[in-house]
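Quarterly update from the structural biology core.
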Amino acid sequence: MTFDPTTKNFRIICRNSAAFDEIRNAFRVKNDAAFFSERYGFKAAEFLFAINKFGFFSPGLLFDILHWMKDTYGSLKPLAMSEKCKKYIDDYLLPLKSCCLKEFAISNISEDSGRNNELRHLREKQLLQGMPEKECVSPFAYRWYQEEAIKKFLFVGYGKGVIEVPTAGGKSFIIANFIWNVLKNINRNYKTLILVPNTSFIRLFIFARSGSGPSAVKYPAHLLRRVILVARSLQSVTINS
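Predicted structure, tokenized:
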């Protein structure tokens, strides 16, 4: 496998055509538009290939191909990678790998920002006023899956991965703490771009960071300066603006 710095694409080169065809056919889909093209007298390919006939494919497909090869052939030993290929993977696809080979303690953004101290004082005040304990505010603490998700992002995926969390599962808290741990423990100058489907998610994130109300996390100022939120409509907002 090689990397072309001009096109920014990877390339698979096989010793025989049968092996190449097997890999290429594993990453193809039926061309649904072919039926309509043929109705109007145009020729169209029956399948669409993610790997072109010369072996080139986009960087986003790399890990899927590697996983397929490992599952199919049992290991990646038959695969030889060029030095340019390895360097691109380390620098751009796994940027946190060199920093996260050794685990470090996961920080809680609410502790570091002082938000939890405010909530503890508020809880004491509520208890003194006779409020039932279950109704009093509590400091922000990790649920087990939230901390596990951040650890997997850092120490297994090295900044790459996908998680699914249900409604009210604390997605914004996971995002904020992941970013905070990167800034605090790895590089305080990293910037983060967050893409959301609509502007309502931007409002939710801004409310969570504002620190107004017991449900707000109150993010540190340094984090706010390093994050940009962008909605699908391409209307963007920097959350410290």
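Strands lie at 2-4, 9-11, 28-30, 47-49, 56-57, 192-196, 227-231, 236-238.
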